[in-house]
Amino acid sequence: YCVTGQLEPPANPLICPQFCLRFNDLDNIGISGRHFSGFIMIGLQVFNSPQKYVYFKEECVDYNLRWLTKELEINVDDITLIEDVWCGGGNLGPSIEMFVKGLEVGNMVFTQYKILDFVKGEFEPLKHQVIDVGIGLERIPWLINGTPTSYLEAFPGAVKYLQSKLEVTLESEVISKFAPFCCLLNLDECKDVNKAWADIAKECGVENREILQTAIQPTRDLYIIADHSRTMLIAIYDGALPSAVGGGANLRNIVRRMFSILHKNGWWEKLGGMDGLMELFEWHKRDLEKLYGAFDEYKSFRKIIEMEYQRWCTTDLESQQKVQALLKKKKGVLVVDDWIVAMKSYGLSPDKISEISKLPVPDNLYTKLAELEDQRVKMLPTELYETADFQETIELFYDNGDLREFNSEIITVLEKVDEKCKPTGIHNIVILKESAFYPIGGGQDNDTGKMKIDGITYDVTYVEKVGKCILHHLDTDLKNWNDLKGKSVTAYIDDQRRNQLRSHHTATHIIHQAAHQVLGPHIWQNGAKKTVEEAHLDITHFASITREEENEIEKLANEMVRKNLKINKFVLSKEEAEKKYGFSLYQGGVVAGNTVRIVDIAGFDT
C-alpha cells in the first residue's frame, strides 16, 4: 500500500527491527557461523512520492557508509559494495550489498520500476520510489567482537547452559583452524560440498573430511539446538504451532531435528529430559529480555513441546515398512526426493529414516524441503483495479452501523476487467464519495442492495475495497457511464442480510474468546467465514478438542450471549492499539493504514 502510494507509511523514514523466520538455510546452521532459522532483521524504509522527496540512492549509500565507518569504527578499506538487481512483488530496482572483510552485513534495495512484462523486459518508473535496507542484527556484534561464530553473540546464556549440561568443548585447535574456512560450505554457493570439505580438512591439517566433520559435529549440533530452540520459542509465543502443513511444517521439522540430535548424541538424559529443555527456553528468554522485555506466562507452552515430543517418539511400524519397501524399490539408494517422500508421507524424521536405511542424511535435505514448502505458498491475488488516483471513500458504516439508506455522489465509473486484467467493455463498477455498503473482507461476505442513478434502480451485487476506495459492482452495464461523474445517487442496503452477517461476525468473536479461555493463549484465529447461511471459525490448537472442552467452550459462549454484553467500537492509532492490545489484533490479517478500529465486547473479547 505504501509503495503504490495508497497509504502513508507510519513514519518516513521508517526503522523496523523484526524477528524473521527462514527455513531454506537449515543445512548451513552450525557450520557457516552466520546462518539462522530465526534472526532479527533491522529494516530501514524510505518512501519518496511526487509530492515529497525524502532521500534516495546517493544519500542512502552515504548514510550507511557513515554508520559503518563512524559508528562501528570500521576501516573504509575493509568495506566492499557490490551492485546487483532486486525484483519482487511486481517491482524491481538496483541494490547494493554491503560487505565487511567478506561478511555481508546488509543490503540496500532501491525500488524504482514496475514490471510490465517480465519475459520481454518491459517496465516503467514507479511514481513512488522506495528504499528498503535490511541489516542482520546478529552479524553486527559478531563483526565488532570478532568471536569465532555469531552464535556465541546471539545466544550467550543459552550456549553456556548447553555447554555446561552437554559437556561440549567449543574451543579446540581444529575448531579454531576450521572457523575461517566455514564460509566456503554454504550449500547455496558450493558446487561440490565433498570437495570443499576435503580442501578445508587439508588446510586444517586433518587427514580427511570425515575426521574433520566428526571433530566439529558436537559443536555444530550444539549450535543447531540453540538456534532451533530459540526459533521455536519466538514462533510459538507469536501464535504459531508445529503442524503437518504450511509454515507449521517448518516448525515441526526443526523441533524434530532438535529431538533427533539430542537422542543421537546421548544428550537427552544429560540435558535433563523435558525439564532441561524447558530450562533452555528460559535461558533464551533471559537473553531476549534485554531486547523485548519480560516474557508473559504461557501455560500451554510446555504442553505443546511435550505433545511434539510424544509424536516424534511414536513411530508407526507400518511407516518403517514403507521405508524398507522404498529402499528395496530404489535398490538401496535414496535420492533427496525419496527422503522428502518418507518425511512428508510416512511422518518419519530424517534421523529415523537414516536409522532404518543405514544411509546418511543428505547435506541439502532441509534446503530442498524448504524449497518445496515455498512452492506451495499461494500467490497473492492480482489487483484488477487501480484506485490510487481517486479520493478515499468515506466509510459510513463505521460511524453508523444501522444506516440502511444514504445519498452520495459518483466519483467515477470503472470498466470491468476479467481475471487476466483484460477489459470487457462493460462499465458497471461505481466508486462513490461515501458509502454505507460493507465490502467483502475478513472472511465476511459483502453487503448487497440497490442503487438509484438518474431515476433508474440497479442491483448492487458485489462490493469490494481496493486500496482506499470501495467498488460497487452493479448488475447492469451503464451505457452513459462517461456522463455520470458527479451525479447524485441514493443507495439502499439489504437490511436482513446485513443483520445476519453482523450477528455471525459477533458470534465468531465470542467463540474465539471462549476457546482462548478454555484451551489456552496459543489459540489464534487461522481463518473465518461469515455468510448469510452460516459462519465458522478456524483456530490453532496442538491437539484434537475433546468433547469436554467443546462443551465448556459452548457453555462459556452461551453465557456471554445471555449476558447481552455491550459492544464498544472506537478507533486508535496503530501505535497506541499495538501497545494496548498487542499483535493479537491482526489475527484476521494485518490492517492497512495508520489507525485500527477496535471492537470490544464489554471486556470479554477485543
UniProtKB/TrEMBL annotation:
Molecular function terms from GO: alanine-tRNA ligase activity; aminoacyl-tRNA deacylase activity; ATP binding; tRNA binding
Family annotation (Gene3D superfamilies): 2.40.30.130, 3.30.54.20, Bira Bifunctional Protein, Domain 2, Threonyl-trna Synthetase, Chain A, domain 2
Protein's GO biological process: alanyl-tRNA aminoacylation
EC number(s) per entry: 6.1.1.7
SUPFAM superfamilies in UniProt: Class II aaRS and biotin synthetases, Putative anticodon-binding domain of alanyl-tRNA synthetase (AlaRS), ThrRS/AlaRS common domain, Translation proteins
Family (UniProt): Belongs to the class-II aminoacyl-tRNA synthetase family.
UniProt name for this protein: alanine--tRNA ligase
Lineage of the organism: Eukaryota, Amoebozoa, Evosea, Archamoebae, Mastigamoebida
